[in-house]
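Supplementary notes for students who missed Thursday's class. We covered one full example, reproduced here. Read the sequence, then the structure, then the short commentary at the end.
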Amino acid sequence: MRPASLRSESLSRSTEEVSQERPSHSTTVKEIILENFMSYEYARIPLREGLNLIIGPNGAGKSSVLLAISVAFGQAYTERSRKLSDLIRRGKDIARVSLIFDNSAKSGKRPIPYSKSDTFMLSRYLRRDGSYWFEADYKEIDKSEVVRLLREFGINPDNLLIIMHQGMIEELGAVSPQERLRMVEEAVGFSEYRQRILLAEQELGGLIGEESSLLQLIDNANQALEYWKQIYDRYQEKRKLIEHRDLLTKELLWSSEARLTKSLQSAEEKILSKTRALEDLKSQQAEVSADAEQTHQTLLDKQVELRKLYYALVRTESEKAKDESATNAYHSVKEDLAGLSITIDELLARSSDKSVKRLKELATYIEGKGAAAEEDARRRKGELDREVSALQPDITKTEELIKRTTDSYVSFKVKAEVLSYRIRVTESDLRELERGAREYRSELEKMAPELERAGPKIETLRQPYEVSEELKLVSAHIQKMQDVPDDAEKIYNDYSGNIEELKVKLAKLQENKKSMLTELDARKDVWKKAMEDLIESVDPAYQAVLAAADASGFVKFEQADVIEDAGLDLYVGFRGGAPTTLDPFTQSGGERSVALMAFILSLQARIVSPLRAMDEFDIHMDPKNREAMFKMILSQIKQREASQYIVITPSILTVFDRSAHVITVQAVHGSSEVKELK
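Structure (token representation):
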């Protein structure tokens, strides 16, 4: 609540004081520097106070100049309607727009006091990757600093009355009367006073709300004491429940500690048992592995022994086969000789040749030798048969022993695998038990600080879940009493003394509300008088400009009980017709352009911004009205000192004035170039 004695401004503030609000500094742009910006590779565009007329054919790059100024100012329109990276010249990665402001001292003060130079450069850099930044005299600044700087100059680049791009004159004609009024207020320096009225309405709403609350409090005061008595009784009950809850919380903590300790001890006992079992299994595995190894070695030895017996059997059978082969050969030769003996005897009877006698002797020798060999073979066969008979039992016995040894080896290997499996299972169980033990220890360690804060140990036979259930029940009762404040006792004891204090506060509040109503009405009257005076000064100028275009009309201030509903309507009529409200449907494009330009020109004497710019406002005008508007522009500029106008047009004008600074723009080999006409 704001005391009446501390109101921020006088109710007697005059219309003249409001209308004379101006920015604290004023300056003009001396030069625009464009680097790799749209169709400009590099250009320096000099500007002067007064009218700067930028002319040239369509597509030469005229509109890019105003767009560059808007980009340097951070205008919301340019940043909503396009990607800034698209403004970089094709084939380049970075662009820069720089505005050189006049910072020379005027009356001993510089427009930008913290800069000691006669010029001040504001730049904006654009990169192809979408990044951008601002610089002030080569030092990076953020956008908020740019906005603050422009506000000090009275420049709002988002106001259509300050900077108007192509097509924006149609946008100005389509805005609502309320929005048009707000734009005019901002342009002429009245917007701050509108905000003061809105702030006063907000403060008044707060006072009314507070008054209603106080009345309600006082109305309920007689019942409040009994109410707070009931609250205090519940507070006592709640306090006992809280004490019981705290005790249960400690009991739950110590019960949990006991459960975890018991679980840890059980786990450690199981770990010890499993460890012993594991050692026993590993011992058994070692014994079985040794038996298996020994059995395997015995098996190998018996296999070697069996191979030797087989080798002996094969050798004996081979010798028997050789003897049988020799005996068979002898019988074959004997049979052959028996067949030849007649022939030899006949040969001997017929001849006494020595060779025949030798043959006879050989046959007799073979027969004698063969008989001896046959006898010897029968003897050896008997010996070999006995040797074979002796080998067969040994082979059978060895084979049987190998089979039993193999079965033993397989049995030992199976036992070893079973023991390995049991060892793995036991190791897995042991790891799980150790993991559980670690978790129990970890939980106990985490509980240690709470246990220390809980104080002496509470011995309890109850399980944690039993304590927890009772704790939930008590907490639920406490939760039902959440509406009981902790300071209920103090409120109960002090409440009776508050009633008188509330009455005193209400009286003071009502006094302030009355003062605020008076102040708000006064602010509205001053704002209304200021707007009426503004319209009174603007309307004749508006009519005069229209008259030059063979038209008539007037400006009307639409009042309203709520300031946000107030508006500004424009009326215009052409060729002797009665003036009607300006809107996008009644008048033609050229007629709307003439009416809006007439309104803009009529405001020039009151606009606080030192810089105004417009692009192709005359696009829908016929040659006669275009020249009439330019005459009016020149006339307005001559009446304003230290103001700067930038007008862009593709038209060839017959109305020129030596005071106009003319800049031509031409497209040369794919690049825009500027030339200053001296």
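Commentary. Residues 1-21 have pLDDT under 50 and may be disordered. DSSP finds 14 helices and 15 strands in the chain. If anything here is unclear, bring it to office hours.
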